[in-house]
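name: query_chain
kind: protein
chains: 1
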Amino acid sequence: MSMRNIVAIDLGASSGRVMLAQWSSANQHISLREVCRFPNQRVRRAGYDCWDLDALERAIRAGLAQLDEEGIVPDSIGIDTWGVDLVLLDAKGERVGEAVSYRDKRTEGQMAQAMDELGREAIYQRTGIQFLPFNTLYQLRALHQQQPDWQAQVKHALMIPDYLHYRLTGKMNWEYTNATTTQLLNIETGEWDKDLLSWAGVDAAWFGKPSAPGNKVGEWINSRGNAIPVVAVATHDTASAVLATPLMNDDAAYLSSGTWSLMGIESLQPCTSRAALNANITNEGGAEGYRVLKNIMGLWLLQRVCDELHITDLCALIDEAQQQPACLALINPNHHRFINPTSMVQEIQNACAEQHMSIPQNPAALARTIFDSLALLYRQVLGELSQLRNVPLRQLHVVGGGSQNPLLNQLCADACQLPVLAGPIEASTLGNVGCQLIALGELRDVADLRRRISQNFPLTTFEPHSSSVFAAHQARFAALSQPAKELAYDKAD
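structure:
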């Protein structure tokens, strides 16, 4: 019998965790333990909204030190984070400037300029990536135009997880799944697109060759002198979450539900048709093939409302929201106005007022507005994905923290008229762990991992009820979610 100790460092936009997974090859059992959890808060520096990388690194090292104190020697370590954001380094490997967050306003107008100068269709054919105003392509253009003093010092550019790998090992790596989120990777060659980098005004030499998930980057040395392999897992947290989603049928879709909602299907081939472009579908890299999906603003809206109103009992809020009338007020969650408003409560109320809808005045009404609107957007995106595949989708797997929300799961099932299978909650962590187990030879492939996850983490099924309420409001919602009002178009209100 062999027992493996796997460390998964999972960083989200609001918090991070160091997780210990223990794998028993004898009974094929996976257990998870949270070693530590810590906040990930944006800070204002040099006039920009930035990530506090030093605080994140200290928290990660503290978690690893705790395991060291417990006498646990990991077999490997892996890190996953959000996408699109990067870290700039000089010739000595020291950080240049700040790690500016994708929610900063510096990229305003950059995407529209790219479309005008390069052509929307041409960019999409090169990359297959959804147009979002904060993609790395536009961040680098903003860097070139607004921060020439930073740019002059740069020799390397690393995505956030690659930077943290570098801090642990001293080795640089450019992991594929996170690299695809940049809108800088050529979908035909799998290499950095030099023409797009040229438009952004940056040196292609900043970037090394993208590597497939599962490769060993280097080693972290603990206090006892043990050399622990650091594995570049599927470092984009959604790629790890999808890896751990127990998709067993070709007619199943996934929804990774958290700060963002990522709804999509798996495909061995990218989908870059005119219909995919019009629906603003993205083709991000997966551990196997492509994640053909759409980014949806997700529970960021609810998180901001709860922060503003100092709500800590989320379960009570969900129960109260369930008692509210359905679809009394609706918004388009993917409108760019909700990326980072001064007040999310006021922005939601303003959006409802502009559409002459009932204005949600209390927390339960605000939550119900968010849930109903998300359910209708899920229905719309599922229809787009079904049309692209030319095969009806008959099942939806919801994973991640949002899978714990029974009201949203039921509304999703009702709106989409599909069974919703909820779980596992810790999907990104399990995908991170699974990628390491595959790299260590403990599991054969992704299908093997998914079988083990299904055995170890039971799912909850939500059967669809009548869709009459959502069907009655679909046309009303469609009027709110016209392309000109989407994140993709980077227009002013």
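note: Confidence is low (pLDDT under 50) at residues 489-493.
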